[in-house]
Amino acid sequence: MSLRKIIALWIFIVSAGVAIYGFWNLYNQSEIGYWTMAGSLLLISVVCYASGIHHHIISKRQKGLPMLVYGTFVLSAAALSIYIPNPLDLRPWEIYVRIPNSFFFSLFMLLSGLFGAYLSFRPFYDYKKEGAQVGAYYVFYLTLLFTLFPLFLIIFNIVTRGMGGITWEFLTQDIVSMGEEGGVFPAILGTLAMISLTAIIVLPLGVGTAIYLAEYAKKGLAVRVIRTAVNILQGTPSIVHGLFGYAFFVLILFDGKKCLLAGALTLAILTLPIVTRSAEEALNSIPGELRDASLALGATKWQTIRKMVLPPSLPGILTGTVLGLGRAAGETAPIMFTAVYFSGAGTPSSLLKPVQALPYHLLSLYRLVGYRDVEQQAWATALILLMIVLGINFIAIILREKYRQRF
Amino acid sequence: MPKEFEKVISRSSKDKIVQAIFFGIATFSVLIISFIFIFLFIRAYPAIEEFGMGLLSSDWNVSRNEFGLFPALYGSIFIAIGALLVSVPLGLGVAIYLSEIASNKIRMILKPIIELLAGIPSIVYGFIGAILLGRFLYDTFAMRGVNSFLAAMLILGIMALPIIISLSDDAMKSVPKDMKDASLALGATKWQTIRKVTIPGAISGISSAVIMGMGRAIGETMAVMLIIGSVMKMPVPFFNIFDTGNTLTALIAVHMGESHGIIISVLFTAGIMLFTIVAIMSIISDILQTRTKEKFEGKR
Amino acid sequence: MKMQKKSNMMVIGMIGILLVASVLMAGCTENDDEVQEVTVTGSSTVLPIAETAAEEFNNEHDDMQVSVSGGGSGYGINAIIEGTADIGMASRDIKQSEIDKVPDVVEHTVARDGLAIIVSKPVYDAGIQDLTQQQVIDIYSGDITNWDELGGPDEDIYVVERADTSGTYGTFMDLLGLDETAAQSTQLENSDVKRTVGTADYAIGYVGMGYVGGDTPAVALDGVEPTSENVAAGDYALQRGLHMYTDGEPTGAVKEYIDFVMSDRGQEIVEEIGFIPVNA
Fold first, then answer.
1. Which one-letter DSSP state was computed for residue A340?
2. What phi-psi label fits residue A258: left (phi over 0), alpha (psi between -120 and 50 degrees) or beta?
3. Which residues 54-73 in chain B show a CB within 8 A of chain C?
4. Using an 8 Å Cβ cutoff, are B218 and B274 in contact?
């Protein structure tokens, strides 16, 4: 290994270390002093200088310049940051925050560390274009890391904080004294009943629409309009679905009473575009020869669809439906004006009565945090909701992976 | 012969009936969209009739019968822009990684994980955002309260990630492999190919992804409602991410349960605004998406 | 052929799921018409009373089922106007414009309540334990923005209010003669205000008396503590009646339930939750 590579590796390790340390402090909100930060940045600038000088003088290359510039930049940033008042008080400008130095220092360390590590790839690959490529890859890995971090954080927190609240009683009892005691049994049943009903309503509509789009009419004005409608429906905010469900189903169809059926109908509208799109995709994935063969044998179009196209595309359709139901199970806004009560609805007993549901239960419990002793129950509810929704998603993903490579 | 002929006719006419039935089902989506608009409008009409352009002012005071929705409209767009600043760089990075760099095996693992991110219910995001993130920002910046635009932007940024990732991933995948191979064969590195061929080729698909992400952020309700503070005022100064404010969605969700009469009507007006904005975004994004597809259709 | 079989299995499985779902639903509808349903909705301040009373009531009566939901005073009264609930709860008096829409409305005042001014614990501990009405007005109108103007710590005041469509908001503003506020946070329900004030360090808010305590101590107003005695005696300025409204004189299960709330046991519940019984 050449000295150039050793120096580059050295820059990477020092920079990454500083970045990780900065991130750690940022996350833990720990107080870090000026000298810790300045020392870390000094370390980065020293390794950068070493690399720059090595290339500039010993290898007689001009390409060490970025390293020298960056080293100087980091050094001056460290030097100048002593002038940042502690805390930085923005209140004179009506912005009511006071940002402590440790926040800036941790952020400095994180950013300059990340950038320093990025720079180290160029000397490592002898300033060839592979270096730029590896540097770019490194940036992508970072974005992936920053994307997965919140996911991890959310799941970790919900699982660790929610586990303690999950007992047999919590899973099997009705809510007692505003959630402080008892459990979420009717809410679990309510959510399951609601999505089963949603499935029954949405399947024929979604699959029917998909069959029309995929099998009967591929082009033309009607198809364009239908497609646009499906797209708009897919983007429609869930609160708008809730408003519509209230204005149409509750007020007009059900005489002003919230009920299970109104909620399921609203959720069916919400899931319709998801089911339609995935069903269309599934139908389109069936090779055209199958249809041609069937038609050539004298079968009608409908026979072909029923016997040849629909059966093999069922797994795909089911996947889409299950994914849609996963979304429906977690939605709060569409059902809160149309179907749910916090308590007293009991186990779902009729289509025309209100139910309890997990997402709304979580919202209601969160509202009571601080007033009633329900934070533990709220975390446990979040965990159960998450398990149900992710479980449904998981089933869908497994279904899809299993049947993906069929044609 | 005639009997056979009859059979054929009856079979094909039966087929016609089946087709008509499916057409009927397919028009359902169109019907629903028009129903949503009509019923929202019927409920909103009293407010529109009574206040007119006053609904777009920034004065909101229930006791004085002033219902200016501008602060909520501003808040919705402000938060969406902030959320995009978080999610576009991250989302594009991950999408490029997924579509161009990752091996098939890693892709098979990562895609479902990112779908899980999309699967987490928004109320859970809101709960986490309010309890953990809000508190974290409160402590870090010594804010006055745990609610802020910043917290909402960060949470919505995370929530918009999956849709941006999957749509731009699709867009980049739709750039024909021949074009990429040609670039590689000319001696370009993979990164140069991504920069010079894939991204420019997929740019309209990527913009469609960004618009969809923005639509998602504007339409998000539960998470925002628990984080934003729901107070009907503009942030002061207008770019102050540490202040509290309101969005159209949070306005509806918070006040719907407490309201009656004309205020409900005002909330339905907010619903129409929301629906219109997001519908326009869906249409634009749709046009951009078909454009990407059509662009490469001929070259396949 | 094998593929065909698999998809047939899928169809059967799907039909099975649907069947189970529909059986589940149908099976539950059996003992339907024997139970008398009572729906109660409205003010979140009255909610704990209705809720706790309903739990006990439902345990005692197998043939009646009371379900309670929140939504706010306006919503509760509107539910009576539109006939969407049997009982509407409100933490403010019904307005004349609303009476015009339900001329037969009957008011059942189930409890009295004081509106307590709560502050974050650090503020209370720093000595802010008594405010005058004028000071509260100044804070809410934005004339006082820092606790040190009131002898507290040099920290900005985080002003929390209820949603301006709520009954509590209306009562608060009416009682103090305020027209608009300079609040930084609008919260839907009492518990939301309590949580918001409790999680911040330098906040102020107002809630029904049942919500005082813990992280959010109440300050005295003009030297009068918001206690049951002071409210019952009429000494505490910010107070109001908590009502249940019905369209016409209640009958059947609705009457039974309201009678239960007004009974000695019902009023005990009122007291346990922290409100002032009406028959005291």
1. B
2. beta
3. 60-64
4. yes
Asked if A237 lies within 8 A of B140 by C-beta distance, the reply is no
Helix axes C167-176, C133-141, angle to 10 degrees: 120
> CB neighbours (10 Å) of residue B77?
16
Q: Any idea where the domains of chain C sit in the sequence?
A: 33-113+240-273, 114-232
- Please determine whether the domains at C33-113+240-273 and C114-232 fall in the same fold group of CATH: yes
- Provide the pLDDT for residue A260: 93
What's the rounded Cα separation, in Å, for the pair C209 and C212? 6
| Mean predicted lDDT score pLDDT of chain A | 87
Is residue C267 helix, strand or coil?
helix
- Given this model, what pLDDT does residue B4 score? 58
User: What is the chain C residue with the closest CA to A174?
Assistant: C55
Q: Is the pLDDT of residue B56 over 70?
A: yes
What ipTM did this prediction achieve? 0.91
Tokens in use for C245? 């409204």
Nearest CA in chain A to B128: A154
Closest residue in B to A359 (Cα) is B123
SS3 content of chain A, % helix, strand, coil (to 5): 75, 5, 20
| B259 CB within 8 Å of a chain C CB | yes
User: In the prediction, which pLDDT does C22 show?
Assistant: 52
Instruction: Write out the CATH class of domain C114-232.
Output: alpha beta
Task: Provide the CATH topology of domain C33-113+240-273.
Answer: D-Maltodextrin-Binding Protein; domain 2 (3.40.190)
Q: CB–CB of A354 and C67 under 8 A?
A: yes
Q: Do B258 and C185 touch (CB under 8 A)?
A: no
CATH number listed for the domain at residues A168-406: 1.10.3720.10
Chain A CB contacts of B218 below 8 Å: 237
- Residue spans of the domains in chain A: they are 3-161, 168-406
Averaged pLDDT, A208-225: 87
How far apart are the CA of A367 and the nearest CA of chain C, in angstroms?
5
What fold is seen in the domain B52-296?
Answer: MetI-like fold (1.10.3720)
Chains that touch B (3 or more CB pairs under 8 A): A, C
Mark which residues 77-106 of C lie under 8 Å from B by CB.
Answer: 77-78, 81
Query: Quick one: how far is CA A146 from the chain centroid?
Result: 12
- What ranges do the domains of chain B cover? 52-296
pLDDT digit string, tens, across residues A99-129: 888 898 899 889 989 988 888 888 888 777 7
Question: Is the backbone peptide bond immediately before A85 cis, with ω within 30 degrees of 0?
Answer: no
Q: Return the structure tokens found at B47.
A: 């407010």
- CA nearest to A314 within chain C: C7
- Asked if A315's CB is within 8 angstroms of C10's CB, the reply is yes
Choice among B20-24, B39-43, C6-10, C220-224 with the minimum mean pLDDT: C6-10
Closest alpha carbon within chain B to C183: B231
- Interface contact C120, partner B, CB < 8 A: no
Nearest to B140 among A103, A235, A329 (CB): A103
In the structure encoding, which two tokens stand for residue B274, read together? 């929301």
pTM of the predicted model over 0.90 = no
Query: Would the pLDDT of A365 be above 50?
Result: yes
Note the pLDDT of residue C26: 46
- Contact B230/C at CB under 8 A: yes
pLDDT in tens, A326-350: 999 999 999 988 988 877 677 888 8
